[in-house]
Amino acid sequence: AQSVAQPEDQVNVAEGNPLTVKCTYSVSGNPYLFWYVQYPNRGLQFLLKYITGDNLVKGSYGFEAEFNKSQTSFHLKKPSALVSDSALYFCAVSPFGGYNKLIFGAGTRLAVHP
Amino acid sequence: SAVISQKPSRDICQRGTSLTIQCQVDSQVTMMFWYRQQPGQSLTLIATANQGSEATYESGFVIDKFPISRPNLTFSTLTVSNMSPEDSSIYLCSATEENTEAFFGQGTRLTVV
């Protein structure tokens, strides 16, 4: 079965420290991979995507993600966390490639402490 | 990217009634989708709204419970029929333009009492 796993319900990090939010996936073929962020009482906002090419992709608000095909992972990273980064982060996969329906992970709540 | 407007933003409904949620995009889009986000959980795809034809439903979702329309390239509706408290969720409309990632509406927060 196709699935996306975010193994951490919550990630806590001090402001200024680097952060990593983990994501692994299990789909066949060459999926498109995405990260979205959800702030309270707001819809999902796109952060970044991987389609092909360089394994390190850069996105909005200083976030980046590293694609690892052998480990089927797509971890979200940021070199220096801000308190304003505190939100709910979702990893998503378009299992058949293309900009099509998405399978979402369970979400990881990021808490950045001053 | 285009902007999605969803109406209503929230509603409290009596069990056994139905609610229709509207999704309006400010430009023509390729695909439209409806997702459900149950309290404290992730997003689950309900269906793909197909323009001018029946929606394509995911496993566990049926047309009688969640009828969907998409009469043109910018508008879609989702109806939650014969509601029960288990239908209390956030319902999100999503769309894609040609060769762009999906974008989302603000969601409709539904509470069934």
Can you describe what's shown?
- The complex is a heterodimer of chains A (114) and B (113).
- By secondary structure, chain A is mainly beta.
- Chain A has a single domain (3-113), classed as Immunoglobulin-like, CATH 2.60.40.
- Chain A contains no helices and 12 strands.
- Chain A has strands at 3-5, 10-14, 19-21, 24-26, 32-38, 44-50, 56-58, 64-68, 73-78, 87-94, 103-104, 108-113.
- The radius of gyration of chain A is 13 Å and the shape is globular.
- The mean pLDDT of chain A is 94.
- With 113 residues, chain B is mainly beta.
- Chain B has no helices and 11 strands.
- Helix content of chain B is 0%, strand content 48%.
- Chain B has one domain (4-101): Immunoglobulin-like, CATH 2.60.40.
- In chain B, strand 4 (31-37) and strand 5 form a beta hairpin.
- In chain B, the strands form 2 sheets. In chain B, strands 2, 4, 5, 6, 9, 10 and 11 form a 7-stranded mixed β-sheet that branches. In chain B, strands 1-3-8-7 form a 4-stranded antiparallel β-sheet, with no helix packed on it.
- Chain B is globular and about 40 Å long.
- Classes of the chains: A mainly beta (114), B mainly beta (113).
- Chains A and B meet through strand 6 and strand 11 of A and strand 5, strand 9 and strand 10 of B.
In short:
Chain A is mainly beta and 114 residues long. Chain A has strands at 3-5, 10-14, 19-21, 24-26, 32-38, 44-50, 56-58, 64-68, 73-78, 87-94, 103-104, 108-113.
